[in-house]
Amino acid sequence: MIELKELSKVFDTGKGSLKAVDDVSLSISSGEIFGIIGYSGAGKSTLIRLLNGLEKPTSGSVTISGQNISASKGQDLRKARQKVSMIFQHFNLLWSRTVKENIEFPLEIAGVPKSKRNARVLELVELVGLAGRENAYPSQLSGGQKQRVGIARALANDPEVLLCDEATSALDPQTTDSILELLVDINKRLGLTIVLITHEMHVIRKICHRVAVMEGGRVVELGDVLTVFQAPQQEITKRFVAQVTDTEDSNETIKHLRELYPTGELVKLIFVGDQTEQPILTKLIRKYPVDINIVHGNISHTQRGAYGTLIIQIKGTQPEIAQALAFLNEESIQTEVMA
Ligand SMILES: Nc1ncnc2c1ncn2[C@@H]1O[C@H](COP(=O)(O)OP(=O)(O)OP(=O)(O)O)[C@@H](O)[C@H]1O
Question: Which listed residue, 115, 164, 179, 295, has the most CB atoms within 10 A of its CB?
């Protein structure tokens, strides 16, 4: 569906040249929700502008549904860009137009006749949950409602790809969740391919199928969300994953427990997918004469299934503890004895 091949973008700054996107190759399947995460300056915005044809690559290519966007010009480029739509952090609505008129705008530009426009706008208003607010002005809407208008407007001309540029960064956590749910809903209902850029790992965890981590213009890690959360490879990915799993609390608790119980072992267990629903600890204490103390735990849900971490203290003799750990490994639970 989307194919990036050896894509690079170099900017000439006053102080020399700067590689904002550096040799990126990846492909995104039709119907996928693909996340790109990185800190400020990593090259995410430049990459997304290359995707919608607003920037020309210095080298490499962007192909969407078989059409090379980066090599197209004039009428061809306009046609190719119709397949791609975008929503923004600050919504980019027309303030002097109502909800209905904002959503209608891209239809007007595309030359859709007035009679057809009305029906399409009402359909979109319904789809994004704004029924009853058609005649309100953007200034009368909450942030979440403004983004719903942005989404409806982006969908007006039936794009194949929706690009989301930090689309929830200006929203509070609850509103963020409702917009993310809407994106998942339209992805499923319309089979729309979604590419989003963000610096927030919870956005990736909640809705993406796969994730690419960007640093210094390069994609340094790429994989299925569940795999990346379970076993991040790069330092930067570990930091992003820690945003949504580790808490200050757990470190404090471990330190505290170490002082309270100098004996035994503190072990971090990592569960993935179906394992999160199995009574593995019950089996363990029935089988081995060890005591288990649960110190900290959480389960997170991704679009690809659940994963969880649990920190336990195991008390018993050294051979008993070793047997218990071997049992957990046999059950395919990843274990990490904490120092
Ligand atoms: N038009 C431009 N001219 C010169 N340098 C640019 C231009 N656009 C981006 N850059 C530089 O390219 C690098 C990548 O910027 P980019 O905006 O793509 O990163 P980002 O990951 O989106 O960060 P942010 O979230 O802060 O926008 C930065 O060092 C930036 O200063």
Answer: 164
Region of residue 188 (phi > 0: left; psi between -120 and 50: alpha; otherwise: beta): alpha
Q: One-letter amino acid identity for 81?
A: R
ipTM computed for the complex: 0.95
Q: Where in the chain is the domain with CATH 3.40.50.300?
A: 2-243
Alpha carbon nearest to ligand 1 atom 30, residue: 41
Cα of 43 to ligand 1 centre, how many Å? Answer: 6
Whether 198 lines ligand 1, by a CB cut-off of 6 Å, is: no
CA–CA dist 107, 119 (Å, integer): 11
- 10-residue mean pLDDT profile of the chain (339 residues): values are 95 90 96 95 94 92 88 81 90 94 94 92 94 94 94 94 93 92 94 95 92 96 90 90 67 71 81 72 90 82 80 88 90 82
pTM value? 0.83
Beta bridge partners of 163: 86, 195
Q: Which CATH architecture has domain 2-243?
A: 3-Layer(aba) Sandwich (3.40)
Structure tokens at 188: 């499923």
Element (H, E) at 309: strand 305-315
Q: Whose CA is nearest to atom 6 of ligand 1?
A: 11
Cα separation, 250 vs 242, in Å, equals 12
Indicate if the alpha-carbon torsion angle 310, 311, 313, 314 is positive or negative: positive
The hierarchical CATH code for the domain 248-337 is 3.30.70.260
* Centre of ligand 1 from the C-alpha of residue 45, in Å: 7
Q: Which residues belong to CATH 3.30.70.260 in the chain?
A: 248-337
| Position in ligand 1 atom list of the atom nearest CA 197 | 22
